[in-house]
Amino acid sequence: MSDPLAGFLTTLDLVDTGARTDEDIFTGPSQWMPNGRVFGGQVLAQALIAATRTVDTDRAVHSLHGYFLRPGDASAGITFGVDRIHDGRSFSTRRTQAYQNGVPILSVIMSFQTEDEGLEHQAKMPTDLPQPEDLPSAVEVLSTFSHPVAAVWARERAFDMRHIPSSVYMSVDGPREAKQAVWIRALGRLPDDPTVHRAALAYASDYSILEPVMRRHGVAWARPNFKMASLDHAMWWHRFARADEWLLYVQDSPSASGGRGLSRGTIFDREGRLIASVAQEGMIRVGD
Hints:
Blueprint: H1 4-12, E1 15-20, E2 24-28, H2 40-52, E3 59-68, E4 78-87, E5 91-100, E6 103-114, H3 138-142, H4 148-156, E7 159-164, E8 179-186, H5 194-205, H6 211-216, E9 226-237, E10 247-257, E11 260-269, E12 274-286
Antiparallel strand pairs: 1-2, 2-4, 3-6, 3-9, 4-5, 5-6, 7-8, 8-10, 9-12, 10-11, 11-12
Helix pairs in contact: 2-5
Keywords: Hydrolase, Lipid metabolism
GO molecular function, one term: fatty acyl-CoA hydrolase activity
Protein name: Acyl-CoA thioesterase 2
């Protein structure tokens, strides 16, 4: 059996080609996926790594706004072009485009900032939810299903996800509410590099963000003729936290219409600090 965490870290080990036109050019591998399409979180994390390579080391990413333009081919590598849009006294702005076969599959703009002092407040973390130790692991849940994709998810994902109130892999149990929470953590120790942890959080943020839409309408991942694809993704990093320690991802969906669903997420560490905020809209089609 392959080591999913090692595979995840391999995708972040981009190669600097040394090419310098109007962009800095990097290349990276794709992770195998059962549907043959590049996982959106993977290419987001790689785009972040590429952009970070072009900014001063004292500047950390604080926001990301991207569009998924085409499905990526998981059997092929990806080329990343980074445009150094602006460098100011405190902020740097970068645009990263991910290419396969000469066409972009992702376009994302990111902003980086030096550490600074200022006003501070945050939303409160829910306190009435089960702790991760009181919930079944993703492997325990997925191993109960005789489904080929469930088997792959149980073996190949680099992150454990523990749903509250329950997963929506094979069925949707409980109230049809457009909200849920998920404890997430990398399956093993990650390098101490803060950029790796921020990229890991971007990666994992894409796993379950649209599930509140599915939960509201009783649609499970295993439903026949169900199709979903991320359209855009926005993320804001407020405070640093390690992605190999438990984080609570609180999610809700304010709207679904026109074949699209919008979800929002807030990520807290176990001390209640607000680490990041996420928003994503996706195409959702439910066939008969």
